[in-house]
Specification:
There is one protein chain. This protein is of the alpha+beta class. It is built from five helices and seven strands; from the N terminus they run βββαααββααββ. The strands form two sheets. The chain has a four-stranded antiparallel β-sheet. The radius of gyration is 16 Å and the shape is globular. The structure holds zinc ion (ZN). The site of zinc ion (ZN) has 11 residues, from helix 4. Zinc ion binds next to helix 4.
Length: 177
């Protein structure tokens, strides 16, 4: 379940919102989704999804490095903290209990995806590709911080936008040494 306690600091001089020291934006979901749909339409799904995967991966990786320092966390605790924060910020409720802690592989379940809530359950396609790079970037940060050379990638394999009960991202190994 999502705990609503996200720390938010608003700078009274600039109006900038911060959580854990990171500047944040607070926008209506419909505004974000309209942007999302128009860019997907302009770029095409494949190109847009590839860009979002890379951007999301990099953001997750950087976020984990930042939060590990700020929160004094390490290892999989950083990844679980990331999943919790995403769930607290309205993207949907992420459940990563299916991920094997030794390999970083396994399913990440997403319920109440913001994309499905906005675009509906009759989209007849997967809607949440924007989120795929997030668990991969976070888990690769965990592996690298632990001195491992293994890497993972993630793909949305089930989506509630296709009528499934929930969305699911499968995290799989991409290479190992
Ligand atoms: Zn989905």
């Amino acid at each position: 379940m999502a705990d609503p306690q996200v720390p938010i600091d608003v700078d009274s001089d600039t109006g900038v919102w911060r959580t854990d020291g990171l500047p944040m934006l607070y926008v209506p979901r419909h505004f974000f989704m309209t942007n999302h749909a128009m860019i997907e339409s302009a770029l095409g799904l494949e190109t847009y999804a590839r860009c979002l995967y890379q951007a999301g991966y990099q953001a997750a990786y950087a976020w984990c490095a930042h939060e590990a320092k700020v929160q004094g966390l390490s290892g999989m605790a950083v990844f679980y903290h990331y999943m919790r924060r995403l769930s607290q910020r309205g993207w949907g409720l992420f459940d990563a209990t299916g991920v094997d802690e030794s390999t970083g592989c396994g399913p990440v379940v997403l319920r109440h995806s913001c994309f499905v809530l906005h675009f509906g359950t009759n989209a007849r396609r997967k809607l949440c590709y924007m989120c795929a790079g997030w668990p991969a970037g976070a888990l690769n940060w965990v592996a690298t911080a632990a001195g491992k050379h293994s890497k993972v990638q993630a793909t949305e394999t089930l989506c509630a936008g296709e009528g499934h009960d929930h969305c699911e991202f499968l995290v799989e190994a991409t290479q190992s040494t």
